[in-house]
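Structural prep section.
Before we set up the soaks we want a predicted structure of the protein with adenosine-5'-diphosphate in place, mainly to decide which crystallisation condition to try first. Input record follows.
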Amino acid sequence: MPISASQPQHVLVLNCGSSSLKFAIINALNGDEIISGLAERLGAKTPSIKYKFNNKKTLIELAENEAHAEAINTLVSLIKEHHLDEHLIAVGHRVVHGGEHFTESALINDDVISAIKQASSLAPLHGHANLLGITSAQAAFAGLPQIAVFDTAFHQSMNEVAYLYALPYKLYTDYGVRRYGFHGTSHFYVAGQTAALLNLDINKSNFISAHLGNGCSVCAIKNGQSVDTSMGLTPLEGLMMGTRSGDIDPGLFNFLTTQLDYSAQQIDDLLNQKSGLLGISELSNDCRTIEEAAIAGDKKATLALDMFCYRLAKQIAAFMVPLQRLDAIIFTGGIGENSDIIREKVISQLLYLGVNCDKEANLAARFGSQGIISSTSAHSKAVVMPTNEEWVIANDAARIAKEL
Ligand code: ADP
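Run finished without errors. Recording the tokens verbatim:
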């Protein structure tokens, strides 16, 4: 039955990681969150689900080794118990890798599933979890359209000069080895919101957005399109992150294997899990903890923050090559939205771009508030813009469901 414009349009948004599942029911008309939660440690000893509904937080313990399918079953019972299924019109899935096949969100059918499987060879851990989420949700919500929203899709507008590696061309044509970029829904969303905040036409604006969470990436956005981004074939490339190294000399592989006897798996683990802020601070991957330690005088914590900001500023400056002109730098993600320290340190290294940092505005922008943190005289603005990937997914899913 077609969906009428007047009826509530709730979308269940699922974001499956390898051992976690984030979920929310979002009203696609206004972004209101009806219920939201997180299932963690799936497949391990003490899996659990915590969720927030009607401002009340609840924790459900799952049985040992229960994983995505059981978590989704528990979620279905919860949804039914609170009669939240009555207004559901679609399920939206965050899918990490869409390869070159997907330039926009897609209604899930057998062809889409095989294309996701194909792209999954580029990100096996994420891909496997995303597919598990999709099949479990198809079984649980058989009557609802399921829509895949890809982290990579927004970056498909990059041209080959930006997305190719300087490797033998056949690796690209035969195996799809190229830069794809991630965090696409977030970069897309904050660019649109920033254009609205600054009263600019998105189709005539040049932005650099910095999504700084546990994973971090920068995106150069020209006239509403991604023209370059810092992540690559996998989310490991580019910036220094919570536990990921970001860019390194690929010659390191040879050194680690021949001199230190590392296996491919150990190298992957080193670069993805043990590096970044954690590797340098030898303390934590959590920016807050590191900031507190730096303020208390910890030298390695200070070094970790300085490196994080230097490398971020360097990447932002590099993106002036495709952009040439800059309207605003956008900070988003847990760190970007909350850390005045990081924002100030980064902007102070980019003054020649015509951007600056207003101390009071910078201190005031936190805990989900949006705002301009540069002074009124700044030629290019600095903006804090909370991201909302769930809403982008809900919107896209609702739009596609309404077209059926
Ligand atoms: P994810 O990528 O898992 O979604 P988030 O976007 O939630 O991560 O970002 C998590 C990061 O945000 C952590 O490093 C955390 O320390 C940092 N963060 C959250 N609040 C603050 C704060 N007030 N000051 C500094 N960093 C913060």
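Observations: The chain has two domains: 10-150, 199-389.
Flagged for discussion at group meeting.
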